[in-house]
Amino acid sequence: MLESISSIEKSYLAGFLDADGSIYVQAKPNETYRFGFQIASYIVFYQSSKDEKAFSDMCSIIKLGHKRVRKDGIIEYIISRQEEIIQFINLIEPYIKLKKAQLELLKKIIDLKKKVQDKKDFIKLINLIDKFRELNYSKKRKKRTLTP
Amino acid sequence: MLESISSIEKSYLAGFLDADGSIYVQAKPNETYRFGFQIASYIVFYQSSKDEKAFSDMCSIIKLGHKRVRKDGIIEYIISRQEEIIQFINLIEPYIKLKKAQLELLKKIIDLKKKVQDKKDFIKLINLIDKFRELNYSKKRKKRTLTP
User: How far is A58 from chain B (nearest CA, A)?
Assistant: First the structure.
């Protein structure tokens, strides 16, 4: 399916993501997970609900992810499944101009996450996630306590 | 020069404009103008200053307009000369998915502005500008008093 997206469409989506899309990774405290955190990644597009029809048409090109209408009327188009994120990155990466570093790091994080075996690996993963936060917000690193 | 922009680049710029660009027209009260208003149109791209280098590279493809750094650190890339707006619209219009109506109306406004001969024409122009505001903000029309 995705192979049918033309390079013109991919380039459009890259421009859309560069301008206003979000790419982020969260380490959410969750005790049911082995090291006390759930790692979740997202690629999100936004639009106001007045452009819903055209925005939905645009998103339907992608054939990945899902749509969500927020209480404030903003529509989010969210890709959050790991395999879909990788698929999408591979599609648009050659056309991205501003957010190349984020896409590269996100691929690295998803790859490392699959390989985590012990606490040492997990700390490495958390450090990459902090690096990602810095790319996005230029903020200080969060302090986290790993369990157990 | 502009002919050298590839359709891939045009499509990227269209995605960028659809996602986060502004297209707007203002009727600014100004008594030195014949009917008491200066009509000014803008196409603007935004980016935070941390991406300045990549953003400038992107804007340099366009070879129109100028860059401005706002006090809050946001960089604006602004196309405001009428002929340049028309040139730019012609470049990207075929690739635009969300803001087609704005581009169409802006072309109409710039065209009508050139032809204004009397107050009746000018009122027609002001009405088009109000229609443009509605497209952008879904707000009520402004009340304006024309001079003289």
Answer: 7
Please report, for residues A58, A133, B106, B148, the alpha-carbon distance to residue B33 in angstroms, rounded to integers and kept in the order given.
42, 50, 21, 10
Task: Name the residue facing A8 among B7, B21, B58 (closest C-beta).
Answer: B7
Q: In this predicted structure, what is the pLDDT of residue B147?
A: 62
- Domain range list for chain A: 2-137
CATH fit for domain A2-137, picks 2.130.10.10, 3.20.20.70, 3.30.160.70, 3.10.28.10:
3.10.28.10
Q: What are A102's two structure tokens? A: 């984020």
Most distant CA pair in chain B, distance: 49
Q: Which residue of A has its CA nearest to B137?
A: A50
For chain A of 148 residues, list the mean pLDDT of each consecutive stretch of 10.
83 95 93 92 90 84 90 93 95 95 95 94 94 75 60
Give CA–CA dist A111/A62, Å, rounded: 22
Q: Write down the ipTM of this complex.
A: 0.88
